[in-house]
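Cont'd.
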Amino acid sequence: MAGRSQRKSTRSANTDPLENFKVGVDNVIFSVDTAQNRLLVLLVMRQEEPFLGSWSFPGTLVRQGESLEAAAYRILAEKIRVRNLYLEQLYTFGGPNRDPRENVDSYGVRYLSVSYFALVRYAEAELIADRVSGIAWYPVSQVPQLAFDHNQILEYGHRRLRNKLEYSPVAFDVLPELFTLNDLYQFYATVLGDNFSDYSNFRSRLLKLGFLADTGLKVTRGAGRPATLYRFDSEAFAPLKDKPLVFI
Amino acid sequence: MAGRSQRKSTRSANTDPLENFKVGVDNVIFSVDTAQNRLLVLLVMRQEEPFLGSWSFPGTLVRQGESLEAAAYRILAEKIRVRNLYLEQLYTFGGPNRDPRENVDSYGVRYLSVSYFALVRYAEAELIADRVSGIAWYPVSQVPQLAFDHNQILEYGHRRLRNKLEYSPVAFDVLPELFTLNDLYQFYATVLGDNFSDYSNFRSRLLKLGFLADTGLKVTRGAGRPATLYRFDSEAFAPLKDKPLVFI
DNA sequence: ACAAAAGTGTTTTTTATACACCCATGC
DNA sequence: GCATGGGTGTATAAAAAACACTTTTGT
């Protein structure tokens, strides 16, 4: 990587100087409020120029010796306290002139952003608000105009979330240890839209796959028949890992 | 992006200095030799330390004012002459200590690599060899030990290629303007493995989708009945863009 | 005539979709 | 007993997979 070596075309040896970069990490953090059937994304209010007062994704610049992923976890931990989450890299935005600061306060330094996509457990996530900065969960359908090109990134992240949900077991990283099939269904319906599948068909498909273990336990929520609590059996799932389109 | 601002946790205001980066771009360039049923990847021989003499992906460092994608196209153009291709970003590798140079010749500068994935038309691709550097197409099943973590990146790129092929029309960026259904089938079979589908079923599925326009033209290749030449009709494909799993 | 490659059609199996209906509990 | 949510089953439609067969060319 960073294949500096391939500078063979002698024509451009010294003529085009290399760019110096600062690397930022921005997190698109989703959570699902199943109680209210809302898909949420975490926004913070910018306290500096540029875009002072605009909402944006929580971000940070990468420090010496820090990996990209570590930076992503750091900024996440600064904003919310949460134990159960899924996180992966989303995309790298690195064109020049993305960031207004480039031409002003930084002499020839470019700001590159590696965005990360995270899904956290809503119920347990505690937002950490310091005195000055605003921080809030926004329904993705109602996010305002964001700083930089963050609206675009959100769209990209949202698409990734939907895809991930369909063919990988990310939902179980974020659902409670024990859950009912209805919990699972609500989760999917919130992210994918109500009409993604019939509940009864969803049930039988998921159960037939064989990685949902019946714990024997039941929960009663108000009226109605008690629901069976299931557990995600990662061992039983392992052989299906590389198969296409497992869920939905 | 590059959300420098969110540095609220006062505890670490000045204590942890930011890292300076050089940003590299590495290209995983695939092509399909349908004649010999081989999936190929382009490798170049490194002319410098570290990993002098190892094969690696063609890469370059990003220059002032140059976008990441522009850098990817630049290094591609330095290695092969080709008009028809597909290119997209793959992944960003940016941990510290990925590159041995970090501790030696560069004072606190980190090398980050944004990898790109490309698919080019094999028949028309001319490799550009300068006097010193080695450059070659390798069958992906036979790539040797590569420099850095490039073997890992290759695996990642290969998976991406297979996925792309299944749900997006990248094949047509790389096939000739006019092609037979058998050409298309061979292309898919080479990338996805011979047993991905029955030829006859592949035919009917693709034709039913309605974006392959019969040109009326025929080609005879040796013995056998002449084959119809088709053309990819991008207008007819447009409405299917966002549908899942169109191909195979 | 026959081999080779292109192209069509048919049968079987599997999976998706849409519902109808039974079950267990709280009130 | 009846409303409420949980859970099962069935009937139909569509898609995938396997494979037999016809058509058109070169030799």
